[in-house]
Amino acid sequence: MLGHLLDLVTYDIGIDLGTANVRIGIKGKGLVAIEPSVVAINKVTKEVLAVGNDAKGMLGRTPANVIAVRPLKDGVIVDFDTTLAMIKYFLSLVHQKRENVWVIPKPRVLVGVPSSITDVEKQAVIDAALFAGAREAYVIEEPMATAIGVGLPVNEAVGNMVVDIGGGTTDIAIISLGGIVVDKTINIAGDEMDELIVEYMKDKHSLLIGYSTAEKVKIDLAIAHPEVEIKEQEIHGRDLISGLPKAVRIDSMEIMEAISPALRKITDAIKEAIEDAPPELVSDIYSKGIVIAGGGSQIPGLDRLWSETLHVPVKIAKDPQLSVLKGTLKALDQIETIKRLKEVEDQIIY
Ligand code: ADP
Ligand code: MG
């Protein structure tokens, strides 16, 4: 009985609205569901037909009047209805997975959102969560959630730098005293690398492959530094000239070459972010280093590449794809304090 009461008090949900994946978790339990950030919409009626895995299954094989979209792909949320459909769906996943659904009151929800979204869009996310059944809803900017998630002392007067390489965007931020001091978001991340691999295979091997094959090749083979383990694999596609099936053996060095334009752009953006930071924070970054997170941070050698080119220590987050979610769940602990201290403006924290 007491257990139920405690449940009642601590029913907090964190959501990471990523550009590639949405992750949802419950305080005390951690991750409960992960699904692709895809929504299938009827073009004519604008009705949302499916969300997550079901919608992803419809990508590329939809009838003419159905489109599958990734509403957060470039860090931008398209419209309220789509956002609402997504949040409703993801909250329903949590309910399905819980026993004792009937004793559970409306949850408090904290949603990690891209830092590039506008206040209007933030409010749309909050309204959508409330409309979907949340008792209280808040948003937190993803770089802040990442930093909290990886355990950085975000409230101290030191410079904390995080680089989150996701699907659609790379988020680079320097955080100090509970605020984001420098924030740089670029549309160069995992998806761009997949596109570069598709192009590379066309140009160098006359081989036509799809984006999901390219993503798999990236995950299996990509490296960011020549002195890490090199792997190789046979890649199947279609010959550009004959149109017939063809297989080519590829190794990690080639994939590194293919994705190098994206790596260069991310490196430049990190340099610019450091240049934009106040000098005291820069010295902190040189001594404490950078934490990298997000799916893209798992490319072997990325830490070596950046520690050598930027001359800063680089650490990869533990479970890098869960940093934002972990941060939302941790930040929920502080919401009451933050509300009291800051009198949270329009329910938007940080
Ligand atoms: P988002 O937060 O934007 O939804 P994620 O942090 O979930 O994105 O990262 C998704 C991206 O990470 C995808 O582009 C995916 O291909 C890439 N990714 C996942 N695992 C790996 C890996 N082991 N190596 C390289 N890239 C990876
Ligand atoms: Mg993310």
Index terms:
alpha/beta; five-stranded mixed beta sheet; binds magnesium ion; 350 residues; single chain; binds adenosine-5'-diphosphate; 41% helix; flat; 11 helices
Molecular structure report:
α6 packs antiparallel against α8. The mean pLDDT is 88. The chain has eleven helices and 16 strands. It is flat. β15, α10 and β16 form a beta-alpha-beta unit. 46% of the residues are buried. The two termini are 36 Å apart. The protein is an alpha/beta fold. Strands 3-2-1-7-8 form a five-stranded mixed beta sheet, sandwiched between helices. The chain has helices spanning 2-9, 53-58, 80-97, 119-131, 142-149, 190-205, 211-221, 252-276, 279-288, 302-310, 323-342, and strands spanning 12-17, 21-26, 30-36, 39-42, 48-51, 66-69, 108-113, 136-141, 160-165, 170-176, 179-186, 207-208, 232-239, 245-251, 290-293, 314-316. The chain binds adenosine-5'-diphosphate (ADP) and magnesium ion (MG). Residues 18-21, 166-168, 190-191, 215, 218-219, 222, 294-296, 298-299, 321 line the site of adenosine-5'-diphosphate.
